[in-house]
Amino acid sequence: MVNNAAIVNEGSGWQRVIAINLTAVIVGTKLAAAHMRKDKGGKGGRIVSTLSVAGLVQSHMTPVYCATKHGVRAYITGLCKDPTRPDQGIEYAMIAPDAVDTPMFQSVDSNRVLFWDELKDEMKRRMMKPQAVGEAFLQLLRSDVINGAILQVDIQGKTFRHMECVNDGVTFDPSKAF
Ligand SMILES: NC(=O)C1=CN([C@@H]2O[C@H](COP(=O)(O)OP(=O)(O)OC[C@H]3O[C@@H](n4cnc5c(N)ncnc54)[C@H](O)[C@@H]3O)[C@@H](O)[C@H]2O)C=CC1
Ligand SMILES: CC/C=C\C[C@H](O)[C@H](O)/C=C/C=C/C=C\C=C\C(=O)C/C=C\CCC(=O)O
């Protein structure tokens, strides 16, 4: 299961950002986990949530959006550490891209993102094609173990945060996760 839907809007209507980016992730994750958990008759599985660089840093550009992505990181990390999780057979991981050329990014303006006029050139310089995130996502899923992984994706490449990088530089070592 993938938690991917999100919006960005620091203007009026910011409460909806919290509803979609954070509350809905918690609701969806609870529903999915209840269905998936092996100790309650499910088959187990993986739940991957899309963060953002905004879930790793605090920015004056997108304080509400950052709060939701930090909230998702805290929530999912808590589930990663649940001592009953191995019996549930569920793994939790996150992917944290920098700016990506999608409708979300293309629709950003100074009503939705603060200080946009000053910062847009820098953000556009860092912008990746969506394929870069898709490839990173598949690479994450190819790992034998992903619980606790946060795969950061930017124009420099892919880096696991909170984990040791081994082999090809992006293989998750769960023993180094927390
Ligand atoms: N585009 C970017 O620069 C970056 C995006 N992200 C994250 O990537 C994920 C995907 O975003 P993008 O593809 O860029 O955005 P997008 O705007 O192109 O796609 C977002 C999708 O979420 C759906 N959605 C929005 N509100 C919904 C709701 N209430 N119910 C159901 N679906 C809803 C939209 O219909 C759309 O299909 C998001 O979690 C976003 O925060 C992370 C880092 C950078
Ligand atoms: C800015 C809006 C553009 C697109 C909206 C997207 O949804 C995207 O997910 C939002 C990104 C927001 C990013 C906000 C701030 C980013 C700040 C930095 O990258 C700061 C630089 C370095 C951080 C160093 C580090 O701790 O890794």
TrEMBL record:
- The enzyme's E.C. designation: 1.1.1.141, 1.1.1.232
Q: Which residues form a coiled coil?
A: none
User: What Pfam families is this protein classified in?
Assistant: adh_short
Q: Does Cytoplasm appear among the keywords?
A: no
Catalytic activity from the UniProt record = resolvin D1 + NAD(+) = 8-oxoresolvin D1 + NADH + H(+); prostaglandin E2 + NAD(+) = 15-oxoprostaglandin E2 + NADH + H(+); resolvin E1 + NAD(+) = 18-oxo-resolvin E1 + NADH + H(+); prostaglandin E1 + NAD(+) = 15-oxoprostaglandin E1 + NADH + H(+)
Q: What's its top-level EC category? A: oxidoreductase
InterPro entries for this protein: NAD(P)-bd_dom_sf, Sc_DH/Rdtase_CS, SDR_fam
- UniProt keyword annotation of Oxidoreductase present: yes
Q: Which UniProt keywords apply?
A: Oxidoreductase
The record's family statement is: Belongs to the short-chain dehydrogenases/reductases (SDR) family.
What is this protein's function? Answer: Catalyzes the NAD-dependent dehydrogenation (oxidation) of a broad array of hydroxylated polyunsaturated fatty acids (mainly eicosanoids and docosanoids, including prostaglandins, lipoxins and resolvins), yielding their corresponding keto (oxo) metabolites. Decreases the levels of the pro-proliferative prostaglandins such as prostaglandin E2 (whose activity is increased in cancer because of an increase in the expression of cyclooxygenase 2) and generates oxo-fatty acid products that can profoundly influence cell function by abrogating pro-inflammatory cytokine expression.
Under which name does UniProt file this protein? 15-hydroxyprostaglandin dehydrogenase [NAD(+)]
Originating species: Aplysia californica
